[in-house]
Sequence to fold (281 residues):
Amino acid sequence: MSTETPETEDSDVPDPQTRRLKEKETRKAAKEEAAADVIEGETVELKVFRYDPEIADKQEPRFDTFHVPKFEGMTVLDALMDARDRYDPTLTFRHSCRQAVCGSDALFVNGRQRLACKTQTVDLDEPIQIEPLPHRPVVKDLVVDMEHFYDQMRSVEPFFDPDELPGPDQQQLQTPENREQVKMSTRCIWCGACMSSCNIAAGDNQYLGPAALNKAYRFYFDEREGENRQEERLKIVEEEHGVWRCQTQFSCTEVCPKDIPLTEHIQALKREAVKNNLKFW
Ligand code: SF4
Ligand code: FES
Fold:
């Protein structure tokens, strides 16, 4: 019996261990490259919110100050990572893609919701004050509990439900005009910045909020949406804690890192709800 590993089509694909090592090398190289751009003698001052309910002397919320070397192109996320790696490995925050795609590092930076990986430190006044997203329970340091936000997103049933499914050889086509209409609404990365900035959501825990309403818009106005589902979705957004709670304050639109015209989308859903309730005798 042969003991050789059979050749497969994937023999060029590196195994997980090799891949991890490669990724580590790439990160190291990127870090060294960044270090080469360090601006001699200059530092960035950060004031970072700290809180740890599991450690007796850290249960009282406070701010810690860090000074990290400044480099060209430094983002708030870079600064936080440097502070953690250099001074305090317990400093806790979320991040993943580092390129405004995963939505995990939305924070309250200098009094405004922002993605840490998309925000350049040079654009901010110092000390840069970094806090967790407001109106969410803090789990630890800069990490908040996002479960309620995800529940609101799920409550608008964010999935396609066409009246007829296409056959195996068919495509479900969308006109370029319709694609254009829903284009911006598809850009949401579930970061929660809009919800955190909304005064109405802060006062009404059941309000669906801008991100969920935008998600409803995204499917409601897609011409491939099934008629029944469209009606059901409109009922969800019309309910007591739906579109009518929006007071057109635009705070969500201002902070959205993907530039989605959230307030406009909520208004469009309001118009649909009005049309839906018009009665002619
Ligand atoms: S709508 Fe914008 S701010 Fe709100 S969750 Fe999506 S990407 Fe974030
Ligand atoms: S780290 Fe993914 S959006 Fe910032």
